[in-house]
Design brief:
Layout: H1 2-82, E1 86-90, H2 92-95, H3 104-114, E2 121-125, H4 131-138, E3 143-145, E4 149-151, E5 158-160, E6 162-164, E7 183-185, E8 188-196, E9 204-210, E10 217-219, E11 224-227, E12 237-241, H5 252-263, E13 274-276, H6 283-297, E14 301-302, H7 304-308, H8 311-316, H9 323-330, H10 347-363
Parallel strand pairs: 1-2, 1-12, 12-13, 13-14
Antiparallel strand pairs: 3-6, 3-11, 4-10, 5-9, 7-8, 7-11, 8-9
Helix pairs in contact: 3-10, 4-5
Length: 369
């Protein structure tokens, strides 16, 4: 009996021991699990905090970038409200040609963009135009009907005669349409077209065609034709190059008067402008002409003949003058190496002019970054 009891106690002891061990193991597992889950929760919270901070930083960066962009745009808008753009009024030199892909306005534009000036520049040069025709495109002279015409209700083109408001003959559209992108007659929108060899008596003729059908009307002689060039650029800073194709009777005072008429169309920045001189003649033949322009316009006047016949200008732009070039330079004549033909300047000359104008715009504070 005693032996059996001893064995029973031993058996119960083992069971208790096993149970105790199991309990300890369970507790240990729970403790480990608790710490594991707790650590996992901490890491999860840390990761979430890192992610949240990253989101905040990213959002702050985006907001800062947006604020910077808005501030930059506001600054640009403020500058553009004062300096909406630069407009280059002119003829062949300003317009460029098939042989000259980068006339001086394009050179100025490239330099401005390269140096983070965002002010737009508009080329309003038209090949072959007289100074009077350029004045008409700018609105300095009004374009008017030379005779009364009846405009039908439909969009049939009607032949018209046009004059400048001072009675001068003008001939727009012969070299290009700049300044005539939009047009109206008696507040009716339309388009002006040029027909060459219209009949045996006319070398060319003009036709007005309304954009939309509407009520017919009579336009009396003297009625103004409003072209877009006469009102789109009144707030722009002008660069004026006129006179190469006549229209001023070879009278420098008449040329100065016409230049002033263009300046009188300006509404903003009336004191900000550049006047480009002619590229013809020699120092001897152009002395009085250039002296009159210099006296009138002061630092606003750029003597292109003098600048382009300066050996320093040629050297700056990598030109080695020939013997013939040097003979012309000595006379103050723009040398042959600057021309593509008898009348038109080449790419290098246009680059030189563009560079000079760009630096003048900065020097005179006509442009801002």
């Amino acid at each position: 009996m005693g032996k059996w009891r001893n064995q029973l106690f031993k058996s119960k002891g083992k069971t208790i021991l096993i149970i105790t061990i199991d309990i300890i193991l369970v507790v240990l597992i729970f403790v480990i699990l608790y710490f594991y889950l707790n650590e996992k929760q901490k890491k999860s919270e840390e990761l979430e905090a890192i992610a949240a901070n990253a989101r905040i930083e990213r959002r702050n960066a985006e907001n800062a970038e947006l604020e910077a962009k808005n501030a930059e745009q506001a600054y640009k808008d403020e500058i553009l409200s004062r300096i909406p753009g630069i407009v280059c009024w002119g003829d062949d030199l300003t317009a460029g040609s098939e042989a000259v892909k980068t006339p001086y306005p394009a050179v100025v534009d490239e330099l401005m963009q390269e140096n983070n000036y965002f002010i737009p520049i508009v080329n309003m040069g038209v090949d072959g135009e007289s100074s009077k025709t350029i004045l008409a495109r700018t609105g300095a002279l009004k374009i008017v009907l030379g005779k009364t015409v009846d405009i039908p209700e439909n969009k049939s083109p009607v032949k018209i005669r046009i004059l400048a408001s001072d009675g001068s003959e003008i001939s727009p559209l012969l070299g290009g349409t700049r300044g005539f992108e939009e047009l109206s007659l008696n507040n009716v929108e339309g388009e002006l077209t040029l027909v060459l060899n219209d009949n045996l008596n006319d070398e060319y003729a003009y036709y007005f065609k309304r954009k939309e059908s509407g009520s017919p009307f009579r336009a009396e002689a003297g009625s103004r034709i409003m072209n877009s060039g006469s009102y789109l650029y009144n707030d722009y800073t002008p660069i004026i190059s006129i006179g190469s194709n006549g229209g001023w009777n070879d009278d420098v005072q008449e040329l100065i008067k016409q230049q002033q008429m263009i300046l009188d169309t300006c509404v903003k920045n009336k004191d900000n402008f550049l006047i480009l001189g002619l590229i013809e003649g020699s120092e001897e033949t152009m002395t009085e002409h250039e002296a009159a322009l210099s006296e009138k316009w002061g630092n606003h006047y750029i003597n292109l003949r003098e600048y382009l016949s300066d050996i320093n200008t040629l050297q700056k732009f990598g030109i080695t003058p020939s013997e013939t070039d040097m003979q012309e330079i000595e006379q103050g004549i723009i040398p042959e190496c600057m021309f593509i033909d008898a009348k038109n300047l080449n790419e290098i000359a246009n680059k030189a002019i563009g560079d000079l104008i760009y630096n003048k715009l900065i020097e005179y504070k006509y442009i801002e970054k």
